[in-house]
Design brief:
Largest sheet: 5 strands, antiparallel
Strand content: 15-25%
Pfam families: GGDEF, PAS_3
Order of helices and strands: HHEEHHHEEEHHEHHEEHEHE
CATH superfamily of the largest domain: Reverse transcriptase/Diguanylate cyclase domain
Catalytic activity: 2 GTP = 3',3'-c-di-GMP + 2 diphosphate
CATH class of the largest domain: Alpha Beta
EC number: 2.7.7.65
Protein name: diguanylate cyclase
Keywords: Membrane, Transmembrane, Transmembrane helix
Number of helices: 11
Length: about 375
């Protein structure tokens, strides 16, 4: 700072001296040509005028130098910031489609400045085809005054072939005499790493949500997932009048099984039964869930009561064919299930999915009352 003040002072002193000399020399020549003599008192006014003129000119010149240095310093600071934050600059003339790119802009895509043509197509041709239309829309919205500035995130192709996520922001900074934009200036920022982190977080959240909707023991949907599914699908069933059926499944005498073989064997038994249910419920619009303890629920979309009974019998038979020993069973020598079925179709409309579940539960009770290891359809 002291060096700058000293330099400015020196310039002003030099300007005063130079001003005095120039004006004095001019006054001397003027007196010789007009009067033929030189009078000492004739230098008073020229000296004052010369010193003041020299001082003001030197001051102006000093400020000009300082302003130039400040511009250079600002430019260097901006350059350091842009390089440190990996931000590239562009300046587009919408009238000619000429674009000025800086070196950092080119380096974001793996190029040198000499390899990039100063034209709009240099950007346009490198934007991912799936992202280009949205870029145009965001530019148009800004130019129409719908947004305060242009902002868009899109992918651009790197020189080595991979895609780079770019945050593109800009504003119009100059218009022509017809108020048409001639300088649309902005920045490019590489946010690929942020996008990768964002994707990882999204994947983690999805995985976490899946875990909260899955029964930890059997791998089937839990009651929370079932509830969300039923709420979502109920409106569809009402709107489309699509039939659906609900199967309530309960392992026969399972408390006796646990008492005889232990809870570890009981858990393994539940897993095997759940695997049979998963095998028989493959369609994406159906769901098999652990309803609680040794009880399971299956919802079959588009299935009427006749087909639901057939599917229930296949499931009952497949579980019996597992041949899991159950020496203390109250109805059979191996693990079996009882199944209650209720449907909502043209033959039997229903007013809610909760009501259909209640009916399936009543049918399950009927199957148990009739001797277990069988399927019962709700009779209304």
């Amino acid at each position: 700072m002291n060096l700058n003040i000293s330099s400015s002072t020196q310039i002003k002193i030099f300007g005063v001296i130079l001003g005095v000399l120039v004006v004095s020399v001019f006054a001397t020549l003027q007196h010789i040509m007009i009067f033929g003599v030189i009078k000492p008192n004739a230098y008073i006014i020229p000296a004052i005028v010369g010193s003041l003129s020299g001082f003001f000119i030197a001051t102006w010149f000093s400020k000009l130098i300082e302003a130039k240095k400040e511009v250079e310093n600002s430019h260097n600071r901006l350059k350091m910031i842009l390089e440190g934050t990996e931000i590239g600059l562009w300046d587009w003339n919408p009238q000619t489609n000429d674009v000025k790119f800086d070196e950092q802009w080119c380096q974001l895509l793996g190029y040198s400045l000499e390899e990039i043509e100063p034209h709009f197509n240099s950007w346009e041709s490198r934007v991912h085809p799936d992202d280009l239309q949205q870029c145009y829309k965001d530019i148009e919205r800004y130019m129409n005054g719908e947004t305060e500035f242009y902002s868009n995130v899109h992918r651009m192709k790197h020189k080595d072939g991979h895609w780079v996520y770019i945050l593109d922001r800009g504003q119009i900074v100059e218009h022509d005499e017809n108020n048409q934009p001639i300088s649309f200036t902005g920045t490019h920022t590489d946010i690929t790493h942020l996008k990768e982190v964002e994707q990882e977080l999204e994947d983690s959240n999805k995985k976490l949500k899946r875990l909260t909707l899955i029964d930890g023991l059997t791998g089937l949907s839990n009651r929370r997932a079932l509830q969300e599914y039923l709420i979502k699908e109920w409106a569809h069933w009402q709107r489309q009048q699509t039939p659906f059926s609900i199967l309530m499944i309960d392992l026969d005498c399972f408390k006796d099984f646990n008492d005889t073989y232990g809870h570890v064997a009981g858990d393994d038994c539940l897993k095997q039964v759940a695997n049979v249910l998963s095998t028989n419920v493959k369609r994406t619009n159906d769901i098999a869930a652990r309803f609680g303890g040794e009880e399971f629920l299956i919802m079959l979309s588009g299935i009427n009561s006749r087909d639901a009974i057939k599917i229930a019998e296949e499931i009952r038979t497949d579980i019996q064919n597992l041949a899991i020993p159950h020496s203390t069973s109250c109805c059979y020598s191996t693990v079996t299930v009882s199944i209650g079925v209720s449907s909502c179709d043209s033959d039997k409309p229903c007013d809610s999915y909760q009501h259909t579940i209640e009916e399936a539960d009543k049918a399950l009770y009927q199957a148990k009352e009739q001797g277990r290891n069988q399927t019962a359809l709700y009779q209304y």
